[in-house]
Design a protein that fits this description.
mainly beta
Length: 471
Amino acid sequence: MITMTALLRSIALLVSMAACFPDHSESGDDHGVDPGGGGGSGSGSGSGSSMQPPPNHRGRQTMSDVHVQPGSEQVWMVHSAIADTTATPAVTTAHFGVYLPDANEFLDVLDTTGTLGKKILFPSRDRVLYVTGRGTSQDVFVAVDTVARRPLIQHSYPGNRSAFQLSPSGHLVVSANQTDSRLHLLDTTSLVERPMPGVSDSGALWASGADVLYVFEPLDTSTQVLRFDLRTVDLGQPLAPPTVVATIDGYGLLPVLSPGDRVAALTVISNASELQAAMVDLTTGASHLVASASAADITADGRVTVWQSGTDHTYDLHLVDPATGDAGPAVVTGWRSAGSFTLRHHDVVIIAPPSRDQQGLLYNLTDGTQTPTDGVGSASSLFERPGHTDVWTWDERAAMLRRLDLATGGMRVMLSGADSVDYRPVADDIVVGTFEHSVFRLSMATGDVIGHPLVLADPNDTAAPYKLAGN
């Protein structure tokens, strides 16, 4: 386990050694991405040896979550700080940049001052798509070359988008626009964007192996499962109408797809205001309902994990065959709350206990064995290590990283008090962002810190080589 006191001392030492650079400022037009590189004014001490430096009114420096670029050694993030806390209105200087773990170096790439970051996506091995907003009225999309580390194209659109999902090929992004309450599609190469006709900002999921989008569209008293085949779509042309896969009575929410995209499962609020777990065969449209239940996930072998409620306000966990709707024997019974996580690379369901003083369970899908485990709670994300029997869980609310041994059920706290983490498979390490605007690596083999933390310089003291257009 990391000694956080020693870690914070290292960070404090690095802060004291951080170099300062002259401020940089340059305006741009609204038609492309502007290169920086001039017009900035350096800070000087003025004349006279008795001149005192002006007081520092900088705001607290912060950084976004860290985002590991798939198949790469690069990690992308945003860091920001208020330039002058006495100024009105306040201006937060923000830079989008890249951390190079092996060199322990951070490079500012794009000045995004005046915007608030929303999403970092990776359409291809050599491109990152950054989405940021100007208030709640305009979203800005900018594609950046991750090799040359320069912006390629930028477009802005009115609206306030969220729930961004990248298609399997990386060619498209779907998002929900709160402004017009519709789903929108974006071409990640041209950055051409358009609303999807005939659907609201309801639940949507990409198939795992192709650019096929499933939309779960609520109607007056039912939910339609729609399939949009977008593999050859041209957003400059009208979209082809979707295929109606199935119609389910009631209001559907929280959909999931099975590995291989054969089955969709969702929880349905019936017209009588009762919960039901619904399972839909996406090839035939056949559906089954489980009364007084909610659908949690679908296992690697295609069964649906269903929490079914009883008359005494407790829950039982069942594995349901989606082809027949038949439920197997209860895995756990009489729990006061329901929580489970289905792994994708291990035949295990992690079952979270209803209270901290109660043990959780690891349910083996192959032989049905149950292994007690301590400390399994609400996880924001799970990191599965290929070829290993341990899974790392990140609890964002508790700011805690744990390692779970799937063979024994043993749980060990590896890190606490961090701001964000992401898994870097190419190096078998965890990249950690701290609340003190620093970043470091944690070995997944040993649990030890690799090298020294890197403290990010204040963006008000550095110059990013490029700026968003319109800034």
